[in-house]
Amino acid sequence: MSISAQAKLRARELIDFIDASPSPWHAAALCAQRLQAQGFGQLAEDQRWQLQAGGRYYVIRGGSIIAFVLGCEPMERTGLRLIGAHTDSPGLRLKPKAAHESCGALRLGVEVYGGPILASFADRDLGLAGRVVVRAPGGFETRLLRFDAPLMRLPNLAIHMNREVNEKGLKFDKQTELPLILGIAGEGVDAEAHFRRLLAEKLDAPAADVLTWELAVTDTQKGSLWGAEEEFVADSQLDNLASCHAALSALLACGSPAATCVCALFDHEEVGSESAAGAAGSFVTDLIGRIAANAGMDEEARRCALARSFFISADMAHAYHPNFPAAFDPGHKVMVNAGPVIKSNANQRYSTDADSAARFIALCERAGVPFQQYAHRTDLSCGSTIGPIVAARLGMASVDVGSPLWAMHSLRESAGVLDHAHMIAALGAAFSD
Q1: Above 90 in pLDDT, residue 188?
Q2: Which domains does the chain have, with CATH numbers?
Q3: C-alpha to C-alpha distance for 41 and 138, rounded to whole angstroms
């Protein structure tokens, strides 16, 4: 397979993006940095907005970020071009009082966030990343924190004590067997105080000023290209930072579009999106309402704009796995490096319908990239995305798409180098539509 230098460059840019985004809050901050470097101005939700024609803006809410470019044509006439993805990934999150001593070992208690493949966390060099709230003059402030060197581990049980592991699979009791080994507890050590000091040292703050945190367990191994021709990419959080990177890349390249273009990257998709920052919250509807108000649009005009809009829900897709053929519908074997996937489900787990699928096919043809179509096995439960949620709330035509992925929800997933470049091109065509 021939992999162009440009496609490999895009894949390496993706790896850099993921490796710099170990948590949703880091991802939103990194997106903000890249948007600012391209002339986007930050908006605050608690202040009045004064938007200029052709302006480029972004706003952050928690681990979510929405960026937009105001079109040169009236929104009532052109509608919006909206691409959505999510900044969070399934995994392990620390509990508020995580540190405890057990038989001489310092351990950190965790909760399972979303639906990760828990076995993929075993015997790996693990770090921590997220946000910590510390006291500050006049109140408190939130700081990003990251331990990118190996800090913790989930050691496996020796096969001599788990003789059926290869026959029955590696399983962990979520309460008793998932706590992570942090260190050795010396005599009289206060585990919680010890952990709080560890955070404080990293933040260069007094331990007494560390108030609360939201911290995710991370893989410290960097992403890489692999395969005989380096045709694959491996990293954590490909689901769904790959779609975030593709959407952001498309927006940054969109120039001066006729239609207003919006890139919405939401937190909390992996746990149902029901939050202030999630796709089921008010974030995107609030933003569209404020854009409309600044343009002097009345309610009738805003509804006309939504009816003329198009939403692309960009998440990852299940690539055909040659070792497990029985897991796939025979007619829907989507292949790695064969192009973006249009995902359909009769029960509306995806938002795609015949019209929106045809529209995305036309975008792929315009961009000169291949496309594929996917449906889940009828006898397997199908996952979902932000697509149906946002489409229902906005009343907007919508399609669910994604790049093919192996090992979805593993701590280390794999995708195709060509597919990422193809997705950027297809989403770029959507913003110029």
Answers
A1: no
A2: 5-89+236-431 (3.40.630.10), 91-219 (2.30.250.10)
A3: 27
